[in-house]
Design goal:
The complex is a heterodimer. Chain A is mainly alpha-helical. Helix content of chain A is about 75%, strand content about 5%. Chain B is built from five helices and two strands. A two-stranded antiparallel ribbon of chain B has the order 1-2. The longest helix of chain B is centred in the middle third of the chain and has 10 residues. The chains are: A mainly alpha, B mainly alpha. Chains A and B meet through helix 4 and helix 6 of A and helix 3 of B.
């Protein structure tokens, strides 16, 4: 297993280990556990630092030359494909999020201006009602989309290297 | 358009050139060992630049390292009369 593949494995595992419990708690108790976001970020940074250090020590070429091995054209191609794939996933999730937000966020009332201009396409007059718990939930949902996109990126890199090695 | 299949003799040439290891070839050409494995298995087709670098490492022309495989038989549709 090469340095870049091991790196991808470490990032995938670290993101999953940190954010799976984070989203479990944050979706159950959106407001009460806002502070766990900072704990999750710090935990991710520490985990990645430890993993990268282990990877660097375990990689022979780094021990010998002191620098990370140069990525070649195959590595670049795999990274580009993974970026493309995760980009599609992120775009799709953001679109779903936008549609879900449009359907789910309740309109509490319509201001007088909007009633007077009946039939106008403008939504300026609409008053949206959303509690702080819902707001945090929606922010967490789009954040989950970013995390899933990241997992897709590293997952695609791992799958590409596995495909080369096992085929 | 049919996909072109490119075969290579990298594994054979490594053994003919003093049983060169995959790591040694990778270092000479400037790629990773994983890429050499992918090339030998036919999982990856190199860029023109890399193909020339590999051929130059073995000191032979490009076409002696890489060759286009015979095209697989096309599935012909029977014409309806």
């Amino acid at each position: 297993m090469g340095f870049i593949e091991k790196n991808a494995w470490f990032c995938f595992v670290a993101i999953f280990v940190v954010f799976a419990p984070y989203f479990y708690f944050s979706f159950q108790y959106p407001v009460e556990h806002v502070s766990i976001f900072f704990i999750a970020v710090i935990a991710l940074v520490i985990l990645l630092a430890v993993f990268h250090a282990i990877n660097a020590i375990a990689t022979k070429s780094i021990r010998e030359s002191g620098g990370a091995p140069q990525a070649d054209e195959l590595d670049d191609q795999i990274e580009l494909r993974a970026s493309k794939c995760s980009g599609f996933v992120l775009t799709a999730l953001v679109l779903v999020w936008c549609l879900a937000a449009m359907w789910s966020v309740p309109v509490e009332s319509v201001s007088n201006t909007a009633i007077q201009q009946e039939g106008a396409a403008s939504i300026d007059g609409f008053v949206f009602a959303i509690t702080s718990a819902e707001a945090v939930l929606w922010i967490n949902l789009i954040f989950a989309g970013i995390v899933v996109s990241n997992l897709t990126y590293y997952g695609k890199i791992i799958a590409s290297y596995r495909g080369i090695s096992n085929g | 358009m049919d996909k072109i299949v490119i075969n290579n003799r990298i594994r054979e040439l490594r053994f003919l050139t003093g049983e060169m290891t995959q790591q040694s070839l990778a270092e000479r050409v400037g790629i990773t060992r994983q890429t050499v494995i992918a090339l030998e298995k036919g999982k990856y087709y190199p860029s023109l630049e890399l193909a020339f670098r590999i051929a130059r490492t073995f000191a032979i022309p490009l076409e002696e390292v890489f060759e286009v495989a015979d095209a697989p038989a096309k599935k012909t549709k029977k014409k309806k009369l």
